[in-house]
Write a structure and sequence with these properties.
The protein contains 5 helices and 15 strands. With about 260 residues, it is an alpha+beta fold. The chain has one domain: Endonuclease/exonuclease/phosphatase (Deoxyribonuclease I, Chain A, 4-Layer Sandwich), CATH 3.60.10.10.
């Protein structure tokens, strides 16, 4: 099973449509089983095409490009808050497998979508070769946030997921792996395994270089994007993608590409 996570930074990138095409071509070529995306945006002024989706929704355009390439992926998307006064910013999951069910829910205390710290997770139960596995695309807050702290969001997330089957928490966790006794350690404390640490083959793992939104004046390389598993699975490889060495940079985050045997 091959998984990908990427914070897309969508509609905030130069040459955005070219970068969307690179993402679509990569997904098509590498045939990922499940993809988790964050900062999956649509402009608040675009025409509505369904109850909560607009014509320029990034995931909608990505799905169309995938279909044009010959790949069929189902997706779930929902938005958590308004960003930069221009976007409905959301999270998404795509899969080429049978979707048993999908859901979205807030993990922040605030459920006010006009508040930029509101956080929502989308989840899917997917049938993979006759086995039901759950995936959650996450874009979380910061450990030291006085209003919406990471610990409370993770506690809410963990209470909302099934305990009786394998599941993965995937995405941008906004907590750096090198900072001890903060969010990265806490996720493991509540029972999750970092697939990067389990991987037989891996690279440096860096997913962000220098300043980005939320990490201003931070000039260090960081690992803040993860694929966490509820069980100690066999991880064949974990590699960073879209980092300029392994495919072109298409966002202010790099992607994480993990191959797992289940």
């Amino acid at each position: 099973m091959r998984l990908l996570t990427l914070n897309c930074h969508s509609w905030l990138e130069d040459s955005q449509l070219d970068k969307l095409s690179i993402l679509a071509e990569t997904i098509h070529h590498l045939s990922y089983d499940v993809i988790a995306l964050q900062e999956v945006n649509q402009t608040i002024t675009a025409k509505k095409v369904s109850k909560n989706m607009r014509a320029d929704n990034f995931i909608l355009l990505l799905q169309k490009e995938l279909q044009a390439l010959g790949s069929t992926y189902a997706f779930i998307w929902d938005y958590a808050h308004i960003a930069y006064d221009r976007f409905e910013e959301g999270v998404a999951l795509l899969t080429k497998h049978k979707v048993v069910n999908g859901q979205s829910f807030f993990v922040s205390e605030s459920e006010d979508t006009s508040y930029w710290k509101a956080r929502k997770v989308v989840g899917m139960t997917i049938d993979i070769n006759g086995k039901e596995v759950d995936f959650y695309s996450c874009h979380m807050g910061w450990w030291n946030d006085s209003v919406e702290p990471f610990k409370r969001q993770i506690d809410r997330l963990v209470k909302s997921v099934p305990k009786d089957r394998l599941h993965f928490l995937v995405g941008d966790f906004n907590n750096e792996a090198s900072l001890e006794n903060e969010g990265y350690d806490y996720v493991q404390h509540v029972g999750y395994y970092d697939t990067y640490q389990l991987a037989k083959e891996k690279d440096a793992g860096i997913t962000v270089c220098g300043d980005i939104a939320g990490w201003q004046d931070s000039h260090t390389n960081k690992r803040i994007d993860y694929i966490f598993s509820s069980a100690k699975v066999e991880v064949i490889r974990s590699q960073v993608i879209f980092n300029g060495m392994n495919l072109p940079i298409i966002s202010d985050h790099f992607g994480v590409d993990v191959t797992i045997s289940i």
